[in-house]
Amino acid sequence: MNKLLVAVGVIFLVVVLGVGAFFGGMAFQRGRMARAGSGLFSGVGPLGGAAACRGGIVGQVQSVGTDTLVISTTQGQVRVHLSDNTRVSKTAQGSLSDLQAGDTVNVRGQRDSSGNVTATQIQIVGQGAGNFF
Description:
Layout (H helix, E strand, L loop, with lengths): L1 H37 L21 E5 L3 E6 L2 E6 L22 E8 L5 E10 L7
Antiparallel strand pairs: 1-2, 2-3, 4-5
């Protein structure tokens, strides 16, 4: 009887700890997501200044005005203010011959044990080293 009571107590303790860990992890993740969302436009990136904010939005353009853009996101509509300093760019398909020394690029791929990367995608960000925006 004593061994049965100990076994039931251990099982109960394991279940309670498992449930507590699950809900604790859920609360931790919700907190991380809330902190990430609240700082979406508030950070300063590696270049400093307003042009280097960390965040952005992804959505569908609903309307374009002279100084305002309305974007529909999964969280609702967002009004985006435009100015003469707002830069607009678009991506076009390129080829390996488009790559030149001095270009700034984003490279995605698999890194090997030597630190070399086998590229699966290369995006030319700008002409000239350090030209991020």
